[in-house]
Amino acid sequence: MNSHTFLSTRGRAPAATFAEVLLSGLAPDGGLYLPQAWPQFGDEELKAFAGISYQEAAYRVLSRFTGRAFSETELCEAIANAYADFDVPEIAPLIEIGQGRYLLELFHGPTLAFKDIALQVLGQLFSRALAKRGGRATIIAATSGDTGSAAIAALGGLANINVFVMHPKGRVSDVQRRQMTTSTHSNVHNIALEGSFDDAQSIVKALFADTDFGRKVSLTAVNSINFARIAAQSVYYLTATATLGRPATFVVPTGNFGDIFAGEAAWHMGLPVERLVIATNSNDIMARALNEGVYASGDAHPTLSPSMDIQVASNFERALFEAADRDADWTAAAMNDFTRERRLGIPQEVLARLRGRYSAFAEDDTATIAAIKTTYDKTGRIIDPHTAVGVAAAHRMESAPGPVVILSTAHPAKFPDAVARAIGTAPPVPGRLAGLEKLPERVETLPKSPALIRDFISTRLRA
After folding, report:
1. All domains in the chain, ordered by first residue
2. How many CB atoms lie within 10 A of CB 145?
3. Which of 146, 187, 258, 298 has the greatest count of CB atoms below 10 A from its CB?
């Protein structure tokens, strides 16, 4: 068993290489890929993450998974190119905001959201892998706000790639929407879906289930269902812990569970972690799952933290698989039951393992606004509403045995209305967003029909 070979959480797909996982995204049995065995970092290797660049840290992690997919030179060049356009040299700086409390700022990339940290790497690797394989690829991405713009920034303009991005119409901020729809790249196609993010995510899975269509257009995904995203996101857990010099509690604003599962991935690789804390908004499926033992979806409703307006957390399947001691048969049956019933009672043994790793809190818009205001009043720092959900959750925790690190997932300027409600003024507009509202938008509004989305993709590819 090794970390260069990947298996599906549902156990009915052939073993895959990293390149196959990268270019396919979802396993053919509908499951999610994980390494056959997690690579391990020893104590001295973990401490060494404190004295190296973020690029070197990313190389040390990703090289444990890539196997023969890329040479050392190719991987180093891909990582260097991925982070060349970030605004700070640290890539993911750790900022103290109070005694033992820190923000891990993950929004210094091209689209000012944490998705850039993984998707810039993914785009570089994807382009290289596709060049080796030959042919074309069609990338489909469902986004609750930030994945779409990050995917466009990473893949827009690349040869032999078409990018189709679906966002829920009216359920992302104006800045988030314009970051996607003002793209001038001819290979980028934006869809405003008349439905929720969960509807968009379901359509992506339906398109992958249509294997004839998938083969015909060489379909792949860049959502966090793609394991390469998880691997790249695990790096900042390692660098933050090494910088602090002791294990931390990580509070993670999360909707689709990818960002926090990256913390579990780091833990599986040997990182000592005090606790992983799930912070959700009032779309609280993950808080209910952990606290009540029932994973049950409802209707997603809009909040001030729209990127977390999700009622089906795709990456939770990975956590369930690990907590079930990698029982693929149980995982496949559980996911099939959930798809059919929209409800899954989590067995006590599995739930106990999950609770051994995670805690969970749900915060409403009132708490979100209060957290933005309190943080500003006490520190002078302006935070976005997703980060504020994490800050609010951290306030409700009992005293932690070590430092508490709140993942700060987006620049506040992407959510000016929410910030203005909290502190009375909109945040300053960074240069990357200046003039965005004056650019023309290119977007097609479509109903939530897999058949119509499939036809739209086919038509655009023929054009």
Report:
1. 94-113+229-423 (3.40.50.1100)
2. 29
3. 146
